[in-house]
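subagent[fold] <- orchestrator: predict structure for attached chain, return tokens only, no commentary.
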Amino acid sequence: MAAFLAVVLRLRDAGSGWVTAALLAEILPFVVLAPLAGALVDRLESRGLLIVVCLGQAAVSALLSAVGGPPATIALVALLGAQAAVERPATGALIPHITGEAGATRGYARLGTGRALGAIGGPALGGVLTVASGASTVMLLNAGSFLLLALALTAVSARRRPAGCAPLPEDAGTNRAGAGFRQLAHDRVLRLAIPLTALAAGIALADNVAAPYRFTQDFHAGAAGFGVYEALYSACELIGIQALARKAGRGQEERLLAAGNLLLGLGVLGIGLAAGYPLALAAAIVGGVGNGMSNAGEGAVIRLRTPEPLRGRTFAAGGALVQGMSVVGAAAGAPAVASLGAAATMVLTGTLAATAATAGLVTALLRRAAVDPSGRPGRPSSDIRTTALPG
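subagent[fold] -> orchestrator:
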């Protein structure tokens, strides 16, 4: 996060088009490379793959410290994005092997906590270090952090080996690179939960475009007031992650994910409707908690609903949907604010997100109601693709 801010500051003088190109170079590899990244994760031992990726990210970050031109910078940022597109599903698939299947939801919550803390402290650190020492220094520190991560991974004893991740014999289609998207489409939970989560992510990005205008212009809160909102929202994300972790292992992951998406939508809607700054901050608390629940719940639900051999490809496919909608949300945010205003944009997007999430939550509650007190499904499923592995 610190390094990406340094990249943005470096490209700022070259024009807003280069800044936009950097954002796209970071996100688009998650979308474009999802089938290939997922196939790599399901065919290679995950811990070793993560070590190789971290070493590659260290090398690219070191190169970023040495280049100065916008084209070379964008190319290297895209290469970092391509490596991150492999790292995310590899991490998601390895976590149950570290924690055990029963503790996986708490594992995803801990991972989400670490990422949220980095997102809170990283931009501030990047801004200070860029001003004090220059962008190249931040890039070198980023390279050092990847080297430390690679070293730390050597202490992880858990393995996810390809020998244990053979294609399911019942369905030869599971051996294809695009099988993760197929899993999302065929599973009765994932085909609703993950697209709704992707929609929530798109709403959050559109909100990021509208929020500065809402707080600094409509509420006259100034830069300091907007900073308070950002800090409060991020802190409440941590609360949402912990709320999901407390319910881990109780079969409530789908409902918690849907509830998180609903709270996120209501938070955006509340900021759009708020009559003043204090009410907007109260709505931000709701939205931040929901965002945290949504971020941590996505991985937990995919793990629960996906057989082990498909998890790398399914995590990659889910990430592609979420990042793709993030691009759409960010692209739609600016023209929406220009034509409708910040308040109307947040009301419209918040209403859309809350309505869709409500449908997802009702579906999850009805599905839970079909389970008898002994925990056995009221109607057995014959679709092996939707059956989580024992344990």
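orchestrator: received. Logging for downstream: The chain is about 80% helix and 0% strand. The radius of gyration is 21 Å.
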